[in-house]
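Listing 4. Sequential folding, example run.
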Amino acid sequence: MKKNAGVYTNDKKHPQQDLVISGQVETFVTIRPKHANMRGIVGDPIKGTVTIIPEKKYPFKIINSHAKDGKNIKYQLEETTVSDTTAYQLNIENLKTDAGRYYDAIILETDSKIRPQLSVRVYGYLRPRKLE
């Protein structure tokens, strides 16, 4: 990864300096998709699935989970296997009964000292049912 930043100073000869910050970034976990989109029509069942795959170099177990808010969703976490690797499947279901938007996050606590917590964002958008 490489990022640039402009720094302004009170030095008249060098009023602005450009800093370059770079470094190697390794993947700790693959989360597919990156977040859950719970979109649909009020009254219809709306479900989503997110797969969490630890990298072989950084294995971990999920030891606990909770929703940040939890009033508009329910979820179930299951251990599974993806390409001979222990993975997790997060099945999410919408509970909201009226039209509108919501946001929540499911916090996954791991046994890893590198990343003791992971977060899966959940975005909801329910449209009203059209009357015919």
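-- end of first protein; second protein begins --
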Amino acid sequence: MSALSDPPTMAFLCRVDLQLSTGKLAVQCAHAAVESLQRAKKTHSRMVQRWNESASRKVCLAVEDEAELEHFLQLVQEASLPFAVVQDAGLTEVAPGTVTVLGVGPGPRHTMDSLFRNLQAYE
């Protein structure tokens, strides 16, 4: 497959149990994207370049709670993918230090799809 037909992916695993407002969730995903991309530039620079040159694919996925997010964090670490765990400052909707989103990638689409195949889109 060419890079264009198999673009790298960035994923955001968002906790459903927190019932964050749409705006709050968007900001948490933005934090995850920025931090994960900064890390990826240091460790996966070619993947970042491919991601920037393609569609910059992103997916927003639902995890039930912090325990499920932690499970996927372990898988991501084992796969040596760049990631960011977002902890909220606690100024609005949740308590300080609440883990809200796990941002992953950019990483190879096939790896990301394999890791997260059982997750549904966040709605």
